[in-house]
Amino acid sequence: MRDFNEIISSKTAALQPSGIRKFFDIVNTMEGAISLGVGEPDFDTPWSVREEGIYSLEQGRTFYTSNSGLMPLREEICRYLDRRFGAAYDPASEVIVTVGGSEGIDLACRAMLDPGDEVIIPQPSYVSYEPCVRLADGVPRILELKEKDRFKLMPDDLEALITPKTKFVVLPFPNNPTGSIMTIEELKAVADVIMKHDIFVVSDEIYTELTYNGREPASIVQIPGMRERTILINGFSKAYAMTGWRLGYACGPAPVIRQMTKVHQYAIMCAPTTSQYAAVAALRDCDEAVAEMRESYNQRRRFVLSRLAEMDIPCFEPEGAFYVFPNISRFGMSSEDFATTLLKEEKVAVVPGNAFGGSGEGFIRISYAYSLKQLKEALDRIGRFVARFDGKE
Amino acid sequence: MREKILTVIEKNSRIDLADLAKLLGESEIDVANEIADMEKEHVICGYHTLINWDKTGTEKVSALIEVKVTPQRGMGFDRLAERIYRYSEVEALYLMSGAYDFTVILEGKTMREVAMFVSDKLAPLDSVQSTATHFVLKKYKDHGTVFDETEHDERQLITP
User: Fold this and answer.
1) How many domains does chain B contain in total?
2) What is the ipTM of this complex?
3) Contacts of A28 in chain B (CB under 8 A)
4) Does residue B157 lie in a domain region?
5) Residue B106 in contact with residue B121, Cβ under 8 Å?
């Protein structure tokens, strides 16, 4: 037998498989399990968007687009960023359409990092930042977000991690898995540190449209001086319920976008053409559909929070994305043990908080992108589980 | 709060009061009072059940009748409308813009009942000039609900 270890890159082999994957395998063997474990909307893509995709196929628009993406789409993206954040981007040189927000993160790392460059990654956060930095020969420096700060990025914590080798900081807000957001005032305090030390930002704003309590979504590019030191990542997956279309975008200073486009050109060629045509319709026609989905998530967010409070499971109030991140430390189990026991005893799947970084230990991620019926059933089961633990049954 | 309550119960009038209050972040008492007020004010006019009669094996049809009328002195559309909607057979009645004046909707009747209603009750009314009766062949969607759609979740069980 051939020893494939010789073939495989040691850098790739050293990457840890996602903790979520491991849990997924356990859940999959469980009959009749209810999952609160997904990271995608429960809505279908709005019909007007799907229709546009179908129409583009009927018209035979089945060819590559330019590497950076369809010009009309880049123009719509710039219009959106302008009406949302008052941020002016040049569609010709400052925008690239990517295969989901994830590709944008990868491109940003590959375009900016030299071996040994440090990247500050706040955690808990989405699972791909750290591997992308490592694959680009960067050095991840983990910043632990804390529950007492409502999982927001504190300027002092950021400053403490900055070294002469720091290239950029990832800003993962609204946050998956905590649901935490950064208000414009909080971003300003962080921006002061960033500008003082002259570092860069990769701001992953994929959940920005899902901001609640009547708050306007905030972006770091709204702060004077930050637009020229930020790669803004966004996409269509969450706001427009388009996860499977795999479409996102990155915006930033032209010299960086040019390098990102080069990598994208060789690795991907261009984002899927059908998805790009559909996305034009999403940006043109769907503000109302997005508002309806936002309201629906917001209602379910309040519902889940109030059920958790009744069960005496502490949870700070998240104001974005579609997750709550309750603290389960009072049960004396690790996140994984809690999730595994809950799955075995009540057949409810949640994701252990440590899947999103060590500082997620002691927490679980509950997604509320489910129908009220599913949420009620799952929360009833969690309630039984907790009552048993608390000896109330 | 009113509009939010209405948006939820428009789709699900059987929702628990406690759940509704949680969704809206309001107290149960406040929600209950608001609903009671809206019932009093006829903002909420009733709670109905959406039925796909085709699945019940009963031989019932729905009909949409276009009605042209001549309003008479001292008797505007509203008075005429009343003379039509008072018939218990009438499920819905709308005043229309365009080529005709009223849409009359009959639900869950036999063909014969519809025919009798038009020929014996509606057409003979003094002000009625003409009627055109359309039978519904199949209902795909009603009140925002697709009849033959079943809930299914195609998502992976766990995703990051």
Assistant:
1) 2
2) 0.85
3) 157
4) no
5) no
